[in-house]
Amino acid sequence: MAPKMMKAAVLKEHGKPLVIEQVPVPTPEGRHVLVRVLAASLCHSDLTIIQGKVGASANTPLILGHEAVVEIEALGPEAAKYGLKVGDRVGAPLWQDWCLDCHECKAVGTEFCAQLKMRGVTSPGFFAEYTTMDAASAVVIPRDSPATAAQLSPIFCAGITVWDALTRAELRPGETVAIVGVGGLGEIATKYAQAFGAKVIAIDVHDGQLESVKAGGSADEILNTRDLEATEVIARIRELNSGRGVDAAVVTSGSKAAYLTALSILSPLGRLMAVGIPLEEVPINPTVIALRALKIIGAKVPGQIGTAACVEFSQRKGIYPKVNPRKFQLEDINEMIDLMGAGKVEEGRMVIQFS
Q1: Pick the CATH number of 159-298 from 2.40.10.10, 1.10.4100.10, 3.40.50.10260, 3.40.50.720
Q2: Which CATH number applies to 5-157+302-353?
Q3: Cβ-count burial 209-237 (b if 16+ within 10 Å, e if not)
Q4: What is the dihedral of CA 293, 264, 195, 40, to 10 degrees?
Q5: pLDDT by position in tens, the chain (length 355)
Q6: What pTM was estimated for this model as a whole?
Q7: Cα 145 → chain centroid
Q8: What angle do CA 80, 84, 85 make, to 5 degrees?
């Protein structure tokens, strides 16, 4: 049985460190379930929410955290019909509380529902010992899964987001894809793209992150664009790719420069996959888009169906994000935030392990 109080990392004020304190354990209502958090990983989006740059609807105080693996402790009164049981190990996308009745829910995807809430933004997140979860969003992890909770946790944001991008890109075996930005999201994107049969070129401005994916075997080529002019970047890509541009570029970085680089290296008919969210406007030349017949395609965290497909593929192929070997505790959260803010992510995704 869950206790009455729990430890949580709480955002009290934007731009300030999180505060570790005791708060009440929530009671599951409606189709929600009470879950015990096993592992919760830090996402770069958490930093922008803390800074008040993204997620303006995030009111304080707030428990952050939106990618985790949890264990079900109790079912709410309307949760049983979703097939979940106490003791199930589950994960979920950050979206929850979609209505299930609107056009978007029925015909497009629950992740586009206008009524949904965002875990760790507009509802409490996973940087706590317990929380509640919408049963309709949950994806059950098979009991015989060889992966640990720490390995699986980053899949439920970083993994499923780039999975959505790569599936929307409709990569074909033998095509070349550039992953622009190979930090947390980009690192696992290189693995998925390679599993799809693509040639992978990793692009970044940090040698550590590039060397990490090269050493891990998920990048066929790497390119540091930090000191290169735009024309030099195009020339180097052509050198690395038999004299031509790339068929698709997945931009995981939230920088204007990353998007401009991606557009410049696409072959005619190429696809640019927008994942990273820049905090400044990116100038797009419609003439270039038209004359080269380029496609710009948005990608986002999918709903329960896309999440389940990504988790199944990951486990079938044995593809998991690189995880920092350090076993972080909840009390380390502000140190984790500082490390990510400084770009020190080459050792892998930082995961709080509660058990």
Answers
A1: 3.40.50.720
A2: 3.90.180.10
A3: bbbbbbeeebbbbbbbbeeeeeeebeebb
A4: -120
A5: 789 999 999 999 999 999 999 999 999 999 999 999 999 999 999 999 998 876 555 789 999 999 999 999 999 999 999 999 999 999 999 999 999 999 999 999 999 999 999 999 999 999 999 999 999 999 999 989 999 999 999 999 999 999 999 999 999 999 999 999 998 899 999 999 999 999 999 999 999 999 999 999 999 999 999 999 999 999 999 999 999 999 999 999 999 999 999 999 999 999 999 999 888 899 999 999 999 999 999 999 999 999 999 999 999 999 999 999 999 999 999 999 999 999 888 889 999 999 7
A6: 0.93
A7: 21
A8: 95
Could you give the residue ranges of the DSSP H alpha helices within the chain?
A: 44-51, 103, 149-152, 158-169, 184-195, 207-215, 230-240, 256-264, 286-291, 304-317, 333-341
Q: Vertex 116, ends 115 and 119: CA angle to 5°?
A: 150
SS3 at position 315: helix
Tokens of 89: 């190990």
CB 13 within 8 A of CB 60: yes
d(CA 345, CA 156): 18
Residue with tokens 């015989």: 144
Distance CA 222, CA 211 (A): 8
Instruction: Find how far residue 91's CA is from the centre of its chain.
Output: 13
Q: In the chain, what are the domain boundaries?
A: 5-157+302-353, 159-298
